[in-house]
Amino acid sequence: MPELLSGKTALVLGVANKWSIAYSIASAFVREGASLVLTYQGERQRETVEELAADLKATRVLNCDVTKPDELEQLVSELKQLSPTIDAVVHSIAFANKDDLSRPFVETSRDGYLLAQEVSAYSLISVARALSPLMTAGGSLTTLTYLGSTRVVQNYNVMGVAKAALEASVRYLASDLGSSKIRVNAISAGPIKTASSRGIKDFSKVLDAVAAVAPLRRNTDPAEVADAAVFLASDLGRGVTGNVLFVDSGFQIVGIGL
Ligand code: NAD
Ligand code: IMJ
Predict the structure, then answer these.
(1) Contact at 8 Å (CB) between 174 and 218?
(2) What is the pLDDT of residues 52-72, one digit of tens each?
(3) CATH assignment, 9-249
């Protein structure tokens, strides 16, 4: 099989550990011949991400907390020295206060709302603004979203509202950046066990409920999300922008599943 990303440089934001969806994506990108740059969120993650990056033979590992404009600027200046162009960017970042993912949605505080929006939605806009000038040969920006943006999913709450804003941002960014040949898309993944889902109340029940009714009658494997990300980053995805691509065993089409 020919490599789909050879000659391309990819930046992947959001690897925290080997269960991260971003890690599966990074490893599929390397399999397809991309040269890889990873970022981590602060000193606490550095060692783990550096070890994973070494396994993947990533060319560089850089610090970047997306809520800190100076760190994004620093990232851009280091990338400029590293590679003449960036061809693919993956944004796999979300955060909300844990309390806001278990209490009734109506109790969401202003601070909790703004935090979820800043980290999970606004950061896509700041990443696009910072990195698009480096994507001089055109390219692809892909983010991760979840069905809770358009449907009520128990406990997803403030994250659902942030994902709605993220998906709308994908469309506006796709419109702005299309003339620079930069495509912007989201992958809506089915529930996957990661650090961001493990602690969630009743998450195992969610996994079982999805597998029981999804057309494919199983849960989503992060490798399937990663292969869709390869498609979007590759030339095979050249006509696709402003889209939300569901990689969820088909769960989102189900009305009543028996
Ligand atoms: P994860 O915890 O491995 O990844 C979340 C990442 O966000 C971490 O690497 C964390 O460091 C990063 N992050 C949080 N705040 C940040 C900040 N201020 N600056 C930089 N990075 C920051 O969990 P995951 O499940 O791999 O989540 C990745 C993405 O996939 C998220 O957008 C999530 O909403 C989405 N998603 C997850 C699932 C699922 O079931 N796990 C399903 C659909 C979509
Ligand atoms: C998260 C909460 C509630 C229900 C959920 C999830 N379902 C799924 C997720 C059904 C699939 C995972 N997901 C799609 C996310 O986007 C998770 C985001 C997240 C998770 C945490 C947990 C730990 C924490 N803050 C978080 N912020 C965002 O402190």
Answers:
(1) no
(2) 999 999 889 999 999 999 999
(3) 3.40.50.720
